[in-house]
Structures are given as C-alpha cells and as structure tokens.
C-alpha cells in the first residue's frame, strides 16, 4: 500500500518544528514526509534585528536543515513554492511540482505596508537572512561614504525605523549599540548620527505594560534614539520620509528607512485562492483551513482568534512552535485513521523584548522583568527553542548563553 504523502511548505519555526516532531513521533512506514524550503537553512527570525544592525553575524541565526533533519525519515527539497493548487492536491515549485495527501502551510510572513505610498519600493524590511544582510551592508556603506563626500550629506547618517512595536524596538536597541562602533570605525562624531523611531500609535510597544514601556523608552532615549510617537509615515521616497502628526507634515531626509510596522501572511496563500485576512487563513480549532480536510496552516499564515477578547493573537514564534506540536499530533491521527483531532490552545508563557546587549523588558506569567534579568530570560527562551529543535548539541553550537 502507498504511504500517505505529507508535504510541509516552509522551514521556519512552524514548518521545521512540525518536521522534527514527525521525525520523532512517526513510525518508519507510516507516511512519506517532504519538507520544502527556499534555502538549505532554517533561520531564527526572532534574532534578525541583530544581524540587521550588525551586532551579530547572520550565520549565528541560521541552522543547516540537514543538521536537524534525519534524511532517512524526511525528504528535504530546496525550492521555492509558487502556488498551491488545492483542487488538484499539488504544489507548484519553481523547479517542479509535488503532489500531496496532507499539506502543512508554514510559509511565514511578509511586510504589511498598509498602502503607504513608496514604502514597498524605498524601505528595507527585516524578514530574512538575505534582507538583513542588505540592511547591514547598506548602513556600513552610508557611514563609509560620509567622509568621502565633498559636501557632507546628513541623510547618510539618518536612519528612520518605521514602527515601534516589538521588531522596531528590538532593532533600535541594537542600533543604539552599533552606532558608536560605526562612528569609531569611520571617524564620525556620534552627534551627527540620528536614529529616529516613528510610531503612529500614542505609545511605543502598543499593548505592553505601561511601566515596561516607560523603562524601554527612557533607556533607549538615553542611548540616543529619538522617538516620534503618534506620528504617521505618510510617504516614503528615494530621499526619505514625509511624516504627519496632527495634520502637520514634516519631511526628514534619510538614505535608510527600515519598515517594521506590520506583517501579513505570505501572499502565496491568498494568491492560491484560500480565503484570507491580511494574507492569513482563519484556521479551525484543529488548525485546518476551513473547508479543507487535509490542509493545515501554522505560524504567521494562520489567523487564530483569542476567544477571551475576540481578537486575533499576534503572530509569534511562540505560537508557531506550539502549533507545530498540535499539527504533528493531528497529522498522525489522520494517518492512523483517527478522525478525532486535537484542539489547539495557545499557552502564552510571556513576552520578552530585547533592548540591546544585556538589556530587555518582558513579562513571564504575571511577573514583570527588566534589565539584565529580562535579557537573561530572553537568552534562556532562545536556548530552549534550540534544545527543542536539535537537543543540547544545537544549544552548544548556536546558543546565546555561553557555558564555558
Ligand atoms: C526581528 C523580529 C523579532 C521577533 N521577535 C519575536 C520574539 O521575541 N518572540 C516571538 O514569539 N516572536 C517574535 N517574532 C515573530 C516571529 O519571528 C514570527 O512570528 C515567526 O517567525 C513565524 O514563524 P513561521 O514559521 O510562520 O514563519 P517564518 O519563521 O517566517 O518562516 C517561514 C519560512 O518559509 C520560507 N519561505 C517563505 N516563502 C517561501 C517560498 N515561496 N518557498 C519556499 N520557502 C519559503 C522562509 O524561507 C522561511 O524559512 C519576531 C519577528 C521579527 C521579524
């Protein structure tokens, strides 16, 4: 009898963890599992603000897929997904196609620009190893060029970060550490550099505990970050941004605009005819796409409603990883002929945002954490993930808390 074929699209948190769990829980002959990913590596998206600023080498954030996947149990296909043809139960790749019996969609996120003019064309975004390598190189180039210009161009040393949510704040925290190093390297007076974080909401880190928000903002301001709160980016051009606050416009010239103000699900999902909201499929309790018996969606492509407040959970790695566990259990149930599927219930353990080296804020359970304690907690969370993915060997190889 032919084994059922499970195809997993994307090797981010949701996809790779589903593959690793299947590898651990599945018997040899139960199913054929194929993992498809654009690159031959998995990267830790939650670390990308660091290589973007240049405070961590991008190689530290990536893990070769062959180092965590047992190729006797899982087939890895390095290719780019172009379309899901769900009526035909197949996936179109750039270099071929794959038929499936069960599909796991784990293709992650894309920046959401909310229709802001020029943002897509002129701003950078923190979304992959490729994108953050470009940001780091670009910032270094601008600093290196500054003293070579006959007429000094302040826009080379002005960095605009759009959005003061989680990603924006973590990124400016890294920039606050990186700018003094760049100034030293390229003989630039730090007073000439501006890092401006623009946020449309009335506060940074909207939704976070106000005391923690105050701590974060004060710390980052002391490190030289400027905040423009309650301010919208109206337009992004090749020369910089046009901001708007209380109907008053301001133009800031900048050669480096980085947009972190929102994410949506991968556009492949909506372009493949699934019903979506901001590119995300509102999944059933068992993580299947509505109307599809054999299509699961995990991570940032899945929209999950919090029944306590009837609002969507923010897309996080924490939820993507937990969904991978439920998705694996449900796939195995279906393969074994059990129709009673598990309900996914996220267990939010806490949230920690880093603010540069040795500094962070966060909540764990009902406890608020600040400074070095929060920073240590962040590193423990990162190491725990590496442990779940590849055991102690991976923690020693890629982890952040050095034991020796
Ligand atoms: C800077 C930053 C910091 C963050 N910090 C935190 C945090 O502290 N805690 C937290 O819980 N969350 C955090 N998040 C959010 C978290 O990273 C995402 O929610 C998480 O990455 C979603 O996981 P995923 O598996 O859905 O997708 P991803 O991790 O984005 O992975 C998607 C995968 O699909 C692949 N892929 C995409 N398109 C294709 C294609 N067409 N063909 C083949 N492969 C493709 C990609 O290469 C990638 O490997 C942060 C995000 C950012 C950007």
What does the model show?
It is built from 9 helices and 27 strands. It is an alpha/beta fold and about 400 residues long. Strands 5-2-1-9-21 form a 5-stranded parallel beta sheet, with helices on one face. The protein has a 5-stranded parallel beta sheet with strand order 11-18-12-13-14. Strands 6-7-8 form a 3-stranded antiparallel beta sheet. Helix 5 (about 165-185) links the parallel strand 12 (about 160) and strand 13 (about 195-200). Helix 1 (about 15-25) runs parallel beside helix 8 (about 315-335). Flavin-adenine dinucleotide (FAD) binds near residues 37, 48, 49 and 318.
Order of strands, main sheet, comes to 5-2-1-9-21
What is the overall shape? globular
Percent range for β-strand residues:
25-35%
Low-confidence stretches: none
Beginning-to-end CA distance, first to last residue: 52 Å
Helicity, in percent? 25-40%
Structure annotation, total helices: 9
Total beta strand runs? 27
Largest sheet: 5 strands, parallel
Averaged pLDDT: 96
Structural class: alpha/beta
**Any ligands, ions or cofactors bound here, and which?**
flavin-adenine dinucleotide
Radius of gyration: 22 Å
């Amino acid at each position: 009898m032919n084994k059922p074929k499970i195809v997993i699209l994307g090797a981010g948190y949701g996809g790779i963890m589903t593959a690793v769990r299947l590898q651990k829980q599945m018997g040899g002959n139960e199913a054929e599992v194929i993992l498809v990913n654009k690159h031959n590596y998995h990267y830790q998206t939650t670390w990308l603000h660091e290589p973007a600023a240049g405070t961590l080498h991008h190689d530290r954030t990536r893990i070769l897929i062959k180092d965590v996947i047992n190729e006797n149990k899982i087939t890895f296909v390095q290719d780019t997904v172009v379309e899901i043809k769900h009526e035909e139960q197949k996936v179109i790749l750039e270099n071929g196609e794959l038929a499936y019996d069960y599909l796991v969609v784990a293709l992650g996120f894309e920046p959401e620009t909310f229709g802001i003019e020029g943002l897509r064309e002129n701003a950078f975004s923190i979304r992959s190893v490729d994108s953050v390598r470009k940001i780091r190189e670009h910032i270094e180039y601008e600093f290196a060029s500054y003293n070579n210009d006959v007429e000094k161009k302040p826009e080379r040393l002005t960095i605009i970060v759009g959005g003061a949510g989680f990603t924006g704040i973590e990124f400016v925290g890294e920039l606050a550490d990186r700018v003094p190093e760049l100034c030293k390297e390229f003989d630039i007076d730090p007073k000439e550099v501006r890092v401006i974080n623009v946020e449309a909401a009335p506060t940074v880190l909207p939704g976070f505990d106000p005391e923690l928000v105050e701590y974060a903002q004060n710390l980052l301001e002391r490190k030289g970050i400027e905040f423009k709160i309650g301010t919208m980016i109206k337009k992004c051009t090749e020369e910089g941004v046009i901001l708007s606050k209380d109907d008053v416009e301001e133009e800031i010239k900048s050669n480096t605009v980085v947009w972190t103000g929102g994410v949506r699900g991968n556009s492949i999902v909506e372009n493949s005819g699934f019903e979506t909201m901001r590119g995300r499929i509102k999944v059933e309790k068992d993580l299947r796409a509505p109307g599809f018996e054999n299509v699961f969606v995990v991570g940032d492509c899945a929209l999950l409603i919090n029944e306590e407040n009837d609002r969507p959970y923010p897309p996080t790695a924490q939820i993507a990883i937990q969904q991978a566990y439920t998705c694996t259990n449900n796939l195995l149930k279906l393969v074994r002929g059990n129709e009673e599927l598990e309900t996914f219930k996220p267990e939010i353990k806490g949230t920690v945002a880093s603010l540069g080296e040795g500094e962070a804020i966060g909540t764990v359970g009902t406890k608020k954490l600040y400074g070095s304690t929060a920073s240590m907690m962040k590193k423990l969370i990162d190491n725990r993930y590496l442990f779940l993915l590849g055991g102690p060997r991976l923690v020693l190889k890629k982890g952040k808390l050095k034991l020796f």
